[in-house]
From TrEMBL:
SUPFAM superfamilies linked: beta-lactamase/transpeptidase-like
Subunit structure: Homotetramer.
Gene: glsA
GO molecular function: glutaminase activity
Alphabetical keyword list: Acetylation, Hydrolase
Protein name: Glutaminase
Annotated positions binding substrate: S63, N113, E157, N164, Y188, Y240, V258
Length: 304
């Protein structure tokens, strides 16, 4: 199959169409990005890899990083992680406080804000140098020692992150945060600030298409069973309360971020990243969703 030709045709069609949605104005640094940016990178396990458009420009991966923090915590803690955070789709906004009260302080899944904050707390309890340990973990997955936190973006998010402060302190009051909320939130804001290109991020996620094994050094990051479960959580929870819609229209495990990125994988075949900063009403990239829907329709390959 000629993935490159199909992708180029879809890219040009989507580029020529409407670019609906808006930038996330509640995060100053993200609101200043051009909404016309549009990049795609396809990383094939057995096929040719290629990029289209702005695929070599760095962007803030935001919540996509939550898949990686979950993977590290899961690898270290095993099934005990699920005592602190659930694996159910949320069905509500990614920063819902109401749901936490209903569920007695156990977040629905690790990919919503409350769940990712709990995962940060878990990592802080596991490692004395958790932010550095996590960054090195990401650098290993990316095979790139230059991946880093963005102080600029982290400070921007921290300056307006009142809802995340509320979530963290509420979790603390319910007994599901064990460390200092300030320390947990600093780690969380840094985690979301990581910048990568589409190309870097597609390679980073390739281990989830390859049974949990990194391609450059053949190291097992997650065993096959754990990798399968991480992909399952992405499939059911990776797009907040639009996760069912993404499964229905695209049919790939994936994760979005409010920086406009979407990372998705087809196990045993490829990983793919699309970046377009303009977001739909649910906080997912408008062009990214459109591209991936057309991509799996044209290639006739998805998990279903």
């Amino acid at each position: 199959m000629d993935y490159k030709q199909i992708s180029t045709e879809i890219y040009n069609d989507v580029l020529a169409g409407e670019n609906l949605g808006s930038l996330p104005s509640y995060i100053p640094e993200l609101a200043s990005v051009s909404k016309d940016k549009f990049g795609v990178f396809f990383f094939g396990l057995k096929e040719e890899s290629f990029g289209i458009g702005d695929y070599q420009e760095k962007f803030s991966i935001q919540s996509i990083a939550k898949v990686l923090s979950m993977s590290l915590a899961y690898r270290e803690l095993g099934a005990d992680i699920w005592n602190r955070v659930n694996v159910e789709p949320s069905g509500t906004s990614f920063n819902s406080l109401v749901q936490l009260e209903t569920d007695a302080g156990i977040p629905r899944n690790p990919l919503i804000n409350a769940g990712a904050i709990v995962v940060c707390d878990i990592l802080l309890s596991l490692f004395n140098d958790a932010p550095e340990r996590f960054l090195n973990f990401v650098r290993h997955l990316a095979n790139n020692s230059n991946i880093d936190y963005s102080k600029r973006i982290a400070e921007s998010e921290k300056s307006v992150g009142y809802r995340n402060y509320a979530l963290c302190y509420y979790l603390k009051s319910l007994g599901n945060i064990h460390n200092s909320p300030e320390e947990v939130l600093d780690f969380y804001f840094n985690l979301c600030s990581i910048e990568m290109t589409c190309e870097e991020l597609a390679y980073t996620f390739s281990f989830l298409a390859n049974d949990g094994i990194t391609l450059h050094d053949n190291k097992t990051v997650l065993n096959n069973s754990f990798a399968k479960r991480v992909n399952a959580i992405m499939q059911t929870c990776g797009f907040y309360d639009e996760s069912g819609e993404f499964a229905f229209r695209v049919g790939l495990p994936g994760k979005s971020g409010v920086g406009g990125g979407i990372a998705a994988v087809m196990p045993d075949h490829y990983s793919i990243v699309v970046w377009s900063p303009s977001l739909n009403a649910k906080g997912n990239s408008y062009r990214g969703m459109k591209f991936l829907e057309d991509f799996t329709t044209r290639t006739k390959i998805s998990v279903f």
